[in-house]
Design a protein that fits this description.
This protein has a domain of 101 residues: GMP Synthetase, Chain A, domain 3. It contains 14 helices and 24 strands. The strands form 5 sheets. Strands 2-1-11-10-12-13-14-15 form an 8-stranded mixed sheet, sandwiched between helices. A 7-stranded mixed sheet has the order 7-6-5-3-4-8-9, with helices on both faces. The chain has a 4-stranded antiparallel sheet with strand order 16-17-18-19. The structure holds adenosine monophosphate. The site of adenosine monophosphate (AMP) has 21 residues, from strand 14, strand 18 and strand 19.
Length: 526
């Protein structure tokens, strides 16, 4: 017997409708890639997103069509998301930092019809477009005056100018596809995660819970995580849904630029990967500055080093929440909220309502949640992928519906997850697993270390042993002996790196994480 409640499909047009109707004059601030700050409101975003929908309809865009975006965080990019999704078309975010061959593969695989891009990305487009026959038109997220003279594109502003703001949104089932985001593809071809309206709607409610992001309408939220990285961690929906001020930083994510935005816009909460927080911290320390309004930061995408959490909490009084997730999870999986500022959130935390997780051994049997036993981390939930786009025939869930994250982890008695490694990064020494993440975190706590990465090297007796690769801070040379002495007592004795290698710069991947694949490849060619 069906319940007798209203038919209210969980579609994302409702998010912006709500923001415009009930928080219409709340500000959305953008630092354009070119430098200037622009300001508008949710009511403006709503009106212009509808105009954009009209432009799409005029081009013949229909439900299920894929529209690519190659852009940093901005109000125009946000309008484009809602304008596309409101029609039931699919917004496909592209990461401008990916190699062009990978972008071409992704665009062709998705068969994108249009591409919307920042003017800054025209050099990429020049290389990309000749390889992408499905693209019918390029729209630059710019004014007509900003169009490069010799580039065949139309400007977003001239495309939406004069169009009505009455376009009808929604009116399709809640499981309709809304967004498409390819995973970085560390092995094999990139795989497309196809979010639905329902999954993103529910994910927003999860993100807003107090022990997750806990965003309030009084917050000013700086979305450092780019809109092309893992669904922008859900911020593009959660922030308008709650009516918080939204600050979008464009492409400049260095410490000085971020500090400036935090100060001028009174940012209270922000989210980004640890390397971004390291950059901001280095700036704060060098310039002896303090971000007075910032109360809370969310770090995720890679493990949060203890030294980083301590520096923000103890020196600046800013709470550091440590989140784990992945593109396939929309992406929030767990969050660790520190009990107080003296306690850094080192584990990745607990699952919120709406997500479930478990650990298994190699044979798929559940292992104990004792904080010590390593296992394969598996997840389920309404915002977790069940298949990849155009690979629907491949089963990615086990018989009980669990998705294997590819991460190795422990869960303690209190339910707190700790990621030890990606399964492919784990170091197997004498039959036991060594956590590369734990050694990296211990090494990066050394005052002269800027970044540290640990990878496995073959060993005749033990199978594999850890190699510590270190990028020292500029002008602060450090020796292997100094580092190994520093690690004594901080990690298990048998985890001690076999050797230490110094590099000028540790390579970062397209989402700002340490690129171990390149480190391993570099080692193989040495
Ligand atoms: P992506 O889909 O690109 O966001 O990558 C997801 C992967 O990043 C996860 O499967 C983890 O291996 C890693 N990851 C994300 N957050 C964390 C974290 N807090 N600690 C350790 N690893 C993380």
């Amino acid at each position: 017997m069906p319940g007798l409640m209203q038919d209210w499909p969980l579609t994302l047009d409702k998010v912006l409708d709500h923001a415009a109707r009930w928080h219409g004059d709340r500000e959305v601030v953008t630092r354009l890639n070119e430098g200037p700050i622009t300001r508008c409101t949710y009511a403006d975003i709503h009106r212009r997103a509808k105009q954009f929908s009209h432009a799409l309809l005029g081009h013949g865009i229909a439900r299920e069509d894929r529209i690519a975006t190659l852009a940093f965080n901005s109000a125009r990019h946000l309008e484009a998301w809602y304008g596309i999704m409101g029609l039931g078309a699919v917004c496909h975010t592209l990461n401008p930092r990916l190699p062009v061959e990978q972008l071409a593969y992704i665009v062709n695989h998705a068969a994108d019809r249009l591409i919307l891009a920042d003017a800054l990305c025209t050099p990429i487009l020049r290389q990309l477009l000749p390889r992408c026959p499905t693209i019918e038109r390029v729209v630059l997220l710019a004014d007509e005056a900003e169009l490069p003279a010799d580039f065949p594109a139309i400007s977003y502003e001239s495309w939406i100018a004069g169009r009505g703001s009455d376009c009808k949104w929604g009116d399709f089932p809640e499981d309709t596809a809304a967004g498409l985001c390819y995973t970085s593809g560390t092995t094999g071809d990139p795989k497309g995660v196809l979010y639905s309206h329902r999954s993103n709607y529910l994910h927003s409610l999860i993100a807003l819970m107090p022990d997750v992001l806990g965003i309030s309408g009084r917050d000013a939220v700086l979305a450092i995580v780019p809109m092309f990285h893992a669904n922008a961690w859900g911020l593009a929906f959660a922030v308008p849904a709650i009516g918080a001020k939204f600050v979008l930083p464009g492409a400049k994510l260095d410490g000085a630029s971020l500090f400036d935005l935090i100060e001028t816009e009174g940012v209270t909460l922000s989210a980004g990967v640890p390397t971004v927080w390291q950059g901001l911290l280095q700036y704060l320390e060098k310039e002896r500055k303090h971000p007075a309004t910032l109360q809370r930061i969310l770090t995720g995408g890679a493990a949060c080093p203890e030294s980083l959490a301590r520096a923000y909490q103890e020196r600046h009084g800013i709470e550091v929440r440590h989140a784990w997730g992945m593109t396939e999870m929309s992406p929030i999986g767990t969050v660790n909220v520190p009990p107080d500022l003296a306690t850094p959130a080192l584990r990745q935390g607990r699952v919120p309502f709406g997500i479930d997780m478990m650990l298994t051994d190699d044979a798929g049997r559940a292992v104990a949640h004792d904080g010590r036993t390593f296992g394969h981390l598996k997840v389920r939930g309404a915002a977790v992928a069940r298949a990849y786009f155009r690979r629907e025939a491949e089963d990615i869930l086990d018989a009980d519906g669990w998705f294997d994250t590819g991460d190795i982890a422990t869960i303690d008695e209190a339910g707190a997850l700790q990621i030890t490694d990606r399964a492919k990064d784990v170091i197997k020494s004498g039959g036991e697993w060594i956590s590369s993440i734990d050694i990296e975190n211990a090494a990066v706590a050394h005052p002269k270390v800027a970044l540290a990465a640990v990878i496995a090297i073959p060993h005749a007796k033990w199978g594999e042993r850890p190699l510590l690769i270190v990028q020292p801070k500029a002008g602060e040379p450090v020796t292997a002996e100094e580092l190994l002495a520093f690690l004594e007592g901080r990690i298990a004795r048998w985890w001690m790196p076999e050797a230490v290698q110094f590099v000028e710069a540790i390579p970062l991947g397209a989402t700002g994480k340490i690129d171990k694949k390149r480190l391993r490849a570099g080692l193989a060619t040495n």
